[in-house]
Design goal:
The complex is a heterodimer. By secondary structure, chain A is mainly α. Chain A has helices spanning 3-11, 22-39, 43-57, 62-82. Chain A has a domain at 20-82. By secondary structure, chain B is mostly helical. Classes of the chains: A mainly alpha, B mainly alpha.
Amino acid sequence: MSYEPMHKIIKLKRYEQPPEGYYEDFLREFHRRQRAELLKPSLSALIMERLSGLIPELRVPAMAFAGAAAVAVIASVAIIRETPRQDAPRAYSVSYTSTLPYSQVPVTIQNMQPVSLRVDPSGLNLPQPPPQSSPLTFPSSYLLPARPANHESPLSF
Amino acid sequence: MSAELEPLQNNDQELVARTQGGDPGAFDELIVKYSPRLYGLVYHMTSNHEDTNDLLQDIFSKAYRSIVNFRGNSSFYTWMHSIAVNMTINFLKRRNRRQHPSLNDPDSNIENDPDFIAATSNGDPTKEVSIHELQKKLNASMQKLSHDHRIVVTMFDIQGIPHAEIAKILKISEGTVRSRLFYAHRQLQNSLHEFKRN
């Protein structure tokens, strides 16, 4: 079959038309749907309506909000005025004598030493280790466990 | 703009401007003008009158909401057809494949159409094919086509829209339109071989 006869057959489909009066009804239906669309409130309008309905139920007088706001402003001004000026930074570090047993010495910057280095026990009342006769023994040291500082358990969130 | 479409598009600019200015009556005029043509476009794609009716309402509703953004870069005709094509293809992608067709009865004038007489008698008056038989066969053949092929056949063969205008509506090249038509026709020839004329 050549192209032209087939084009003519397909073209016969244009005779398939909707029932009479369809297009007049279509326009009326369009107007009806548009009106329904306009009357249908939006979600934000519904929320606002619910909120405005809720506020009178709280039985709070309208002037109470203004009074509360004024009190809040006065209190804020008073707090700002009473705040002391900080001319110099305060020192929060405290030195401790080393007469306390080691276990009771508070941890401060002054008393801290780098990890994995030997601690000089001369300034602390630490029990002295018994003398070792073997030259192969290692001096006591404080080491961090072999675990990265940012390690987290896979189950922790 | 092609000479065939010029009468249809006359006055559109003014109606669009009036709609944008808040005159809903102007949009009513656009509906009256375009609904038969767009009905055909959607109906021949869906082969279902009820689906076409709902979809056409949605198409005009979307156009009405979007017309404030219409800047006239294309004609209103092209813009309106693009909305209809996109919404119809989206609808067809969602629609259940087992959907039964709901076909309109062909206009009685078809019986006087020489092309109908030639196609149904096939040169032999004793072997006449009924209108409904032909309609059923045509729809079945159309539904076998892919959406892309069916849309070009609908616009070109049934609605008589020129290649260049189809290209603008579908935002493809004219060569692609011709290529799709070629393959669609070849497929239709296989489906409609029984209506071959001597």
